[in-house]
Design a protein that fits this description.
Oligomer: heterodimer
Strand content of chain A: under 5%
Number of helices of chain A: 7
Order of helices and strands of chain B: HHEEEEEEEEEEHEE
Radius of gyration of chain B: 25 Å
Radius of gyration of chain A: 17 Å
Helix content of chain B: 25-40%
Largest interface: A-B, 47 and 52 residues
Structural class of chain B: alpha+beta
Chain lengths: ~170, ~290
């Protein structure tokens, strides 16, 4: 059930990334799928993390015109490493998770660029562009998680007050 | 010891999955195909979601944009009224000339250009990780779209062809994709070559021999020799050209470089900025 929930979440994120990206350009600069994949992988067993990485990558490959498996390869490598790291260290702090996501973005983009070169597909991605993407994705992830935590706290408080209103 | 064994098993599993994915990629490259059943499953499952979200977002942004456009259009209306009077006179003159055209065409032995029909579509999705490779439009097999259907910009510039079909949406391979190839012709010199993408904003025109040097700004159109794109569609303009790389072993001096190269390296600026296009035209494959 948890696996199905994760897959549905990834599908929703992939849809948002590909659909809203062209309409609101800044959204295209962040790798939302990687944010979701790393977030889920940190909270999963190793096998689950590999499944999450593979599913996220195949979704991205299926929705883009690239070679099927390229992003899956990079994301499996990243989520596998993140799950291994998550087993050794407890990463629950928003800032630490954001930094981890930034590093994961840099690693993933580097792997994809190297694979593209390996498969003979010319690419114009540069090292500064990869680093910028990593920083942007980390900042976006931190901002999103802080906002989400604040929203959840308010929601919990609001739900906690409901019974007293009925009394 | 048990934890060590678990770690080794996990590493082996990760390694196995990565090897499997590498083999999958190699198989695709060797089979020279960008399509696969797995891609079709993913695309087919996701395309309805993309279409719903894209349509909803398009309506919201369209309403907001519509208000701004309405204010601008009031000023345009007054300007256009005065312009219309001028154009009506021009139109009358052109009608007179048009009456004479069929006779002149007959005299010159030319056939009239084939009339093609097209359908409009909206860009609903794009992977920003691969901005110059593909985009998704909101027309699919239910709208009569077929594989290899040609897609143009509203002003007629070539954008690409359909490589993946869903019932409601289609994926379009852009001409800027490095895996794309379009038979092309220089509009003035009539030399033919092949346009390939560079995964960036420009295109490369290949296989034009060094003695057929184009002029900067010369138009590039489709040649129709690839069997997919009809001839005469505008692709772009020559941005720059140079002699190709030297034959290995020859000295790197300009004279040797020019004389030893067989083909020119021609960079073409496409007519359409594929990153900005929001609406497209789909050529009816039956015409």
């Amino acid at each position: 059930m948890a696996a199905l929930r994760s897959l549905l979440l990834l599908a929703a994120v992939a849809t948002v990334q590909t659909t809203l990206g062209p309409l609101w350009t800044p959204l295209g600069q962040f790798d939302l799928l990687l944010i979701a994949a790393v977030h889920l992988a940190l909270r999963s067993e190793f096998h689950g993390a590999l499944l999450i990485g593979g599913a996220a990558g195949l979704l991205q490959d299926g929705l883009s015109g690239g070679v099927l498996g390229m992003h899956a390869f990079a994301k499996v490598a990243v989520t596998g490493s993140v799950a291994a790291l998550g087993a050794a260290l407890i990463v629950r702090d928003v800032l630490a998770e954001g930094l981890l996501i930034g590093a994961a973005t840099v690693v993933e983009s580097t792997i994809v660029t190297l694979l593209a070169a390996f498969l003979g597909r010319p690419t114009n991605v540069t090292i500064p562009a990869i680093l910028l993407r990593g920083v942007a994705t980390a900042l976006f992830a931190i901002f999103f998680f802080v906002a989400w935590n604040a929203f959840q706290a308010r929601w919990q408080r609001w739900r906690g007050r409901l019974p007293s209103l009925h009394r | 010891m048990q934890a060590l064994g678990q770690g080794a098993r996990n590493a082996a599993l990760l390694f196995g999955v990565l090897i499997f994915l590498l083999l999958m990629m190699s198989w695709q490259v060797n089979s020279a195909s960008t399509l696969s059943t797995a891609r079709g499953v993913v695309f087919g499952a996701m395309s309805p979601l993309q279409r719903v979200l894209g349509t909803a977002w398009g309506r919201i942004s369209g309403t907001v944009r519509g208000y701004g456009d309405m204010r601008a259009s009031i000023a345009d209306r007054d300007r256009l009224r005065s312009r219309m009077a001028v154009l009506e006179r021009e139109n009358a003159r052109l009608r007179e000339e048009a009456r004479a055209t069929p006779r002149l065409r007959e005299l010159a032995g030319l056939r009239a250009a084939t009339r093609t029909s097209s359908t409009g579509a909206r860009v609903i999705a794009r992977d920003f990780g691969h901005r110059y490779e593909a985009l998704t439009i909101d027309r699919g097999s239910l709208d009569g779209v077929m594989l290899d259907t040609v897609v143009l910009s509203p002003d007629g510039g070539l954008i690409g062809r359909v490589i993946q079909l869903g019932s409601l949406t289609s994926m379009v391979q852009l001409i800027t994709d490095p895996l794309s190839g379009v038979g092309a012709r220089l509009a003035d010199s009539r030399s033919t070559g092949l346009i390939a993408g560079l995964n960036g904003p420009h295109l490369e025109l290949r296989y034009i021999e060094t003695h057929q040097a184009p002029s900067v700004g010369e138009g590039v159109i489709t040649s129709g020799e690839d069997g997919i794109y009809p001839p005469g569609l505008p692709l772009g303009r020559v941005r720059s050209f140079a002699a190709g790389p030297p034959i290995p072993g020859t000295p790197l001096v300009p004279l040797a470089r020019d004389e030893s190269a067989l083909f020119l390296d021609i960079v073409v600026t496409p007519l359409v900025d594929v990153q900005r296009v929001e609406q497209v035209l789909i050529l009816d494959p039956t015409t």
